[in-house]
Amino acid sequence: MNQIDIESTDLNLLKVFEAIYDEGGAGRAALRLGVTQSAVSAALGRLRTLYGDPLFTRTGRGLTPSLRARELRPIIGEALDKCRQSLQLVRPGAAGFAGRSVTLGLSDDFEIALGRAVIHALADSAPGLRIIFRQTHSRLAADMLMAREVDLVIASGGLIAPALQRVTVGQGGYACLLDPASLRPGQAQLSVQEFTQRQHVLVSSGGFIGVVDEVLHGLGLTRRVQAATTHFSALAFLLQGGDALATLPAHAARRTRPGCGIRLAHAALSRRDARLRHRGGMAGRCAAGRGRGGRQAQRVGRARRV
To answer: 211-218 vs 271-280: helix axis angle to the nearest 10?
Structure first.
């Protein structure tokens, strides 16, 4: 838009655009803005005329943004955030974060383990700032970051892009989850033979081979994968009532088992176990770099299956 456009345009339309994009529908946008749905629909019509694009297409799940809308979202979002930051000058403290949000991309194992702590930390350090947890994994994270669908990513594995700023926030090993009814009385760990003979449930973004299989192959061992899921949170329901086990990052295993009727156990792989922990050590990383327009651009490495 040129100078004449700015002077003749109702900039409140930008708030409507942001609300429709974030909420995915005119009705929810109206609730967020405290106006009627007809007012939002009318504003959307003016936005379409202003930008010469449909911006949003009605689907079975609400309003889906067009390519132009996806290009506009970070620009409009930055402009509105600058306005909100200006209000912080006259309303310092908690009021300065009102209406602002940050989108954190992470897989559900990290969401299970870290989500509550993130909420509490923001409540203490940035009252009023809202957090959006967005499901991702390292195969999708790069595209989501470059498309500015997320502001930050926590992921496991190496982040090798030289332009990125990376911080290791934690490391850990693996543990097994299984139905306690499948263990002998007093049994706390599995032998190598028991580990490999049991059926396994794999958490994977695709395929049936994970890091455990890679390590076992190097030791001349194999395991039998009975089923695969993309969600760690489903494991408690998939394991109950059977003798299958799942090997997953220890931070997720500790958070998943309370109250779920499943038990945490360790495979007694001795020297092999140490090698498994080394190969599969989870390193949560936040990656950040500078993209076009000064925005945060972040990338992560290849997904690791377990």
So the answer is: 140
